[in-house]
Amino acid sequence: MITKNFETLIFELKDNGIGIITLNRPERLNAMSFQLVEDYHEILDYLETQYDCRVVILRGAGKGFCSGLDLKEFPVLTRRRKPENLRKKFYYVDMPEFVKSGIYFQWRISQMMIKMRKINQPIISLIHGAATGGGFALALASDLRICGESAKFSNAFINLGLSGSDVSTSYHLPRLIGMSRATEILYTGSFFFAEEAERIGLVCKVVPDEKLLDAGMELAETLLTKSPLGLRMTKQALNASLNSPSLETISELENRAQILCGMSKDIIEGMSTFREKKKPRYPLR
Question: How far is residue 8's CA from residue 22's CA, in Å, rounded to a whole number?
């Protein structure tokens, strides 16, 4: 097993090819600090070329998955009115400086979600406690979601005076659960909980919190029985199909995927073990 320790997260790559990313700021409910964003980018960049890792599990340490942006590190969101003055008077940060740093940080967070879709590995999010704001976005950008009974979700940006469309939420959520329900969630910022998340199809299933990792490992191990190249090509096709202008376009991509998979060594293992009714054992690379 390979373990990489970062300041704000832990990555473990097991011998069977399952990688586990643990967001590790439990004292702040795994809120996104500047350092966590940079650490997360580093591990995604590593995974992009790490073919020994075939499936990724994403989870949070402590009492929750991820509570979103760490407001203590984002000064424009902590401005306060002067109590002795008129209601519309604020303490302002240096706005030109904020615009420069704010645009960069906003871009870095949004790129996290894009990289999650671009890496080859399917990502399974295991959600317990709060998945709010940026944490909600992390869950949506994953390929599969399982939640514990304590899970609660909120598109919290809209409650802070910001837009409810942020870091890919307005892209992913309507595609996952449909426009009508997504609109309500994005507009209101209201909490919804594990049972409803399963009912609307946002998560695969709900399990007791203490069984969450077991459920995630079981699903990951199921994916390990599939062709590594086949899974990668399927993820690429799903990504492309979300934006495909036509049936013909996505059909061409699917045709390419099947021919490439059919020419790989994976097809020999897959076909042979299927005929023999055995569990396939694909090589890590």
Answer: 9
